[in-house]
Amino acid sequence: MNTAPLQSIASLLIRRVFAWVILCVIAISGLQAWMNYRAIEDNFNMSVNDVAHAHLPLLSVAIWDIEPHTIQKQIKLILKNTTIAYVVIRASTGQEFVGGDANRMAGGQHIIFEIPAPTDAQKPVGTAEFVVDRTMLKNELWRSLIIVVLGVLVLSIFIFVAVVAILRRDLERPMRQLADFVKNLQANKISTRLELQLEPGHIYNEIDLVVDGFRTMQARIEKHIANQDALVLERTRQLETAMQTLKQLSITDGLTDCYNRLLFNERMPAEIQRAVRYGRDVCVVFCDIDFFKNVNDQYGHAVGDKVLVTFAQSLKAELRAEVDWVVRYGGEEFMIILPETGLQAAIEVATRIREQVELLTIALSDGYGLRITASFGVAELRAGDTVETLVHRADQWLYFSKTHGRNQVQPKDDQHVVPESKPATLSRL
User: Fold this and answer.
1) What's the whole-number average pLDDT of the chain?
2) Helix, strand, coil percentages in the chain from 3-state DSSP, rounded to 5
3) What is the pTM of this model?
C-alpha cells in the first residue's frame, strides 16, 4: 500500500487556479492601468486644451484693448483648473502678467499657446504659458490603478471561492466517497453497488464515468468469481470422483472386481461390532476353487484368470445387493460376508452357490469347455469372536471340506455321504 501523504486533487486544482488567478490579476491590472493611463493623460491634455481655447479669445481682446485688470481676471479663472499650477501671459508689447503657485513650477510641464489678434488670427498679440502640475495626473493614475486592482482582485477572489466550492462539491466529495467505498469493500461483498451521494441537479460527468467503470469492473469480477466457483465446484466433483475411483481401485481386486483383503481388514471389525451391538447374526463363507493349480498348470494363467472371473460372478449372483459382500482373500480363495444371516441360512446360500458353480462350463479357445467345482467352509459369529477367530473357524471348515472330498459345504445340516471329489475335467461345448 502506498504510504505517501495524500494530495487532494481538489486542493491541487485550487492551488493552480489560485496561481492563474494571480497571473490574471497582474496581467489584467497592468493592461487596465496602461489603458487608464492613456485615457487619463488624454483627458488631462484635453482639459488643458479646453481651458486654453476657452480663455485665449478673451485674453486676445483684453491684450488688444490693453486691459490689465481683465487679463488678471482671466488668469484667476484659468487657475481654477487645479491641474494648472502657474500662468504667464506675455503681450507682444513686452508686458507680462503672471499668476499661480510658483512652488509648483519645478516639476510642472510648460505648455505655450499663441494668443491670436481679434482681427487677424494669423498675427498673435502674445503668448500664454501654462505650467501644468502632473502630480495630479500621477495621483489620478494611482487612484485608477488601485481601483482596477481592487476590482479585479475582488472579482478574482469571488471566482476563486466559487471554484473552490464547486471543486469540493463536485470533485473532492465524490472522489472521497469513491475512495472510502473501495477501501471498505470486502471480498465477500464485491457485488455491493456503488452509490454516490451527489448534489441535486447533478449532470453526468467524468466522475460518473469512473463510477460506471467501477461498476463494470465489479460485474466482471463477480462473473469471474462465479465462473471460478463453478470451475472449483466442477474440479471438486472431478476430484471427488477421482478419489472415489482411486478408493474403489484401492479396495477392489482388479481381476474379479471383488473387494480385496485390504477392505476386508478395514470393514470386517466394524461388521462384527455392529452385529454384537444390535444382537444380530453374521456369517462368513470361506470358499476355494478345487484343483485350481492344475488349471493354471494345464491351461495357462489366462484360462485361470477367466476361471476366477467366472467364479466371482457366480458368487455375486447369489448374494443380496448392498448387504452381502465378497472378498478375494488370496489366489483362488474368496470370502463371502453375510450380515443378518444365521448359520443354517448361510449354509443354504453356500450350497446354492456350490451347485451353480458345479453347473458352470467355461468356454476355451479350442472349442472345449472347462468345468470346475469349489469347496466351502461356513462359520457363524459367536460370543467373544474376533475377526481372526471367526475367519479361522471358517478356514477350518474349508479345510475339512477339501480333505473330505471337496465340492461340498461344511458344516452340513445332515450326515449324507460326501461324494468323491474329482479334479477339473474337459468337456466338448
Assistant:
1) 81
2) 60, 15, 25
3) 0.49
In this structure, the chain runs to a length of 429
* DSSP letter, residue 419: P
Which position has the grid cell 455375486? Answer: 316
419 pLDDT band, cuts 50/70/90, is: very low
Distance CA 235, CA 238 (A): 5
Report residue 25 as a C-alpha cell. Answer: 490579476
Gap between the Cα atoms of 175 and 179, Å rounded: 6
The residue behind cell 485674453 is: 59
Q: Which of 131-145, 262-276, 342-356 has the lowest mean pLDDT?
A: 131-145
Cα(368)–Cα(88) distance, integer angstroms: 162
Q: What is the pLDDT of residues 30-62, one digit of tens each?
A: 777 677 777 767 776 777 777 777 777 877 777
Is cis: bond before 269, omega within 30 of 0?
A: no
Active site (annotated) includes residue 266: no
Distance (Å, rounded) from C-alpha 15 to C-alpha 327? 87
Dihedral of the CA atoms 93, 94, 95, 101 (nearest 10)? 140
Of the listed 140, 271, 332, 380, which one is catalytic? 332
Alpha helices by DSSP H, 65-107: 68-79
Quick check: 44 and 82 in contact, CB under 8 A? no
Distance CA 421, CA 401 (A): 10
What b-and-e string marks burial along 275-305, b requiring 16 or more CB atoms within 10 Å of the CB?
A: beeeeeebbbbbbbbbbbeebbeebeeebbe
Give the ranges where 65-194 is alpha helix by DSSP (H): 68-79, 135-167, 173-184
Report the C-alpha gap between 61 and 70 in whole angstroms.
9
Cell of 82: 487645479
Peptide bond into 174 cis (omega under 30): no
Residue pair 251/319 in contact by the 8 Å Cβ criterion: no
The Cα-based distances of 427 to 275, 319, 361, 368 in angstroms read 45, 29, 8, 6
- Cβ-contact 200, 170 below 8 angstroms: no
pLDDT above 70 for 268: yes
